[in-house]
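Hey, I'm writing a tutorial for new members on how sequence and structure tokens pair up, and I'd like a real worked example in the thread rather than a made-up one. If someone can provide the structure for the chain below, I'll link this post from the tutorial.
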Amino acid sequence: MADNFLVVRHGRIREGRAGSLEGAVRGDATGGSQGYAQLFALIGDHHTEPVSEEASAALIRVVA
């Protein structure tokens, strides 16, 4: 898995790529950034349901 962090609807943050909680982890599928990006995924179908306020706040916390 390339995503470092996964954010679920109710605002829980899950570790995606092992070791991401301890420090920077080099990703392996970063769309041309040569592995120097932190990747985040908001879990859900956001075409049919908007991102929840809890998930949005959690994403801000983990990025900050």
